[in-house]
Each structure stands twice: as C-alpha cells, then as structure tokens.
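From the shared-data thread, chain only:
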Amino acid sequence: TRAFVVDRTHKVPVAPRATWAVLVTGASSGLGLEVARRLAARGWAVGLMSRDTARLNAALSEISGSGASLVACPGDASNPDDCAKAVEQMKQVAGGLNALVCCAGISLRSTVEDTTAPVAEAVMRANFWTVFHATQAALELVKAAKGSLVAVSSLAGHRGVPGYGVYGAAKRAVVGLYDSLRLELAEAGVHVGVFSPGFFDSPLRSKVLDGNGQVIDPPPAIPFRLWPLGLCADLVVRILERRKRHIYQPGFVRHLFAFDETTGGGLGDRFLRSRFRGL
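Structure, as tokens:
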C-alpha cells in the first residue's frame, strides 16, 4: 500500500520509507535543493551532490532537521570519477541506490554567433555531461533496484528559441539521451523520466551567462511567466514517485508543440521571434 501526502498543489504518492535512497545532483541550491528537501521530508535517504563544498554543507545543515538520512557527496557531476565516488558513498551509507535526479546546470543567453567555443563547451558540460556521467555511474545500482532515473531538461530543449541555441542544444541532448534510455531499460523495469520547465524562479536567474561567459547584470528580461521554484520541485518529485515519463511546465505546452509540428512551425517561429526580439 502506498501512502499519500498533500503538499501545496499536488497529492503525491510517497515511496515506502526506509527502503529508498536517491542521489540528487546540483543539490546545494535552487531546484536540486528543493527536490532534496522534499524527498528528505518523505523519509528517503538523500545524497546531495555539489561541487561547491560551502553551499553543500549549508544545504545539509538546512535539511538536517527533517530526521532523514543525508549523505554529503562533494564533487562535480561532469566528472565521471566524482560521480562514481558519489554512487559508492550512497552504496556504503544507504545500502544501494534506488533513484537518481539530475538537477545540475547553468544558464546561458546568447546568440549562436556570439557564443565562444569555451562557453559553449562549458554549457554542454554543465547541462548534458553532468546527466550522462551521473546516469552511467548510477545505472548498475538503479537497475538492480528497478528504480528511477530523472533528469531536468527545458522547454528550450524541445523547440528552438532565439538566444537559446547552445543552451537548448544541451537540454535537447538530455531529452534524446533519456528517450533512448527509456527504451533500453524498459525490460529491466527501470523508470526514466524528464522534467521540462519554462522560466522558473531559481538562483540561476541571477547567474545567466552571456556568450563570453560573463554574468548578465541585470538578468535578461523574460517574455513569459516566471513559475515558482516550489511548484517545479513538486513536479520533479511527482515524476519520480509516480514514475511519469515526461512533465512539461506549463502543461499545456505539450499541445502547443503538437500544433507547431502539425502546422510546419511557421506560426511558432513568428511568435517566438516577436516575443524575444531585443531581449
């Protein structure tokens, strides 16, 4: 029997306590921290992975009052050796690994023409290679547990957007990787899910990079609604606990994507050019 709790906006099924262990990358702030907080409150053993040791320690102190088992996993998720160490820590402390949630990433706003090669490589490393290496490291234990793999992509990973060519390419790579993984792991009983949000309120909003790798100050304007961070964290947890294949935020975008594809994309191109003009 699976219990249910009610958080702000969703009725969410809770995984059996004391039997589930999850590793969250990018867990020292933003979406990763909020996801880790929610899973810890549900009684999961939670590994928090971050390359920023100071923020990682602060996050652990902040969540520790939940009474959950927390595992500090310092390291860079774009480094395969660090990912292997984090997974081994989960194995030693929690006895295994049931799930991986990939939240690490950085944000970029620049035309393709104005983006330097080192910045493009850094964006791919932070947004795609973190997912790839963490997933490869976790795969053996997650397969053994018939558990879950969840990655955060973006609406820009499904549709070209002016100023988001490189960022969108990294996020689209995540979608392609996890779509293939879902098929490869279907017979193994492993759940593979992707969360694709639009703009949401996160510390990354104040750290958007330009094509030269400099933080844009003030942050670039956005032409659409800024979604609450807590809502997005709730949806990531929903994907994990309900073993959802894909959730978009906002949800109606999936219908817009279907319409865009059916009509050849011309209307979508004009709409997005008008919304992002001068931004």
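Helices lie at 30-41, 53-63, 80-94, 117-145, 165-184, 229-242, 253-262, 266-276.
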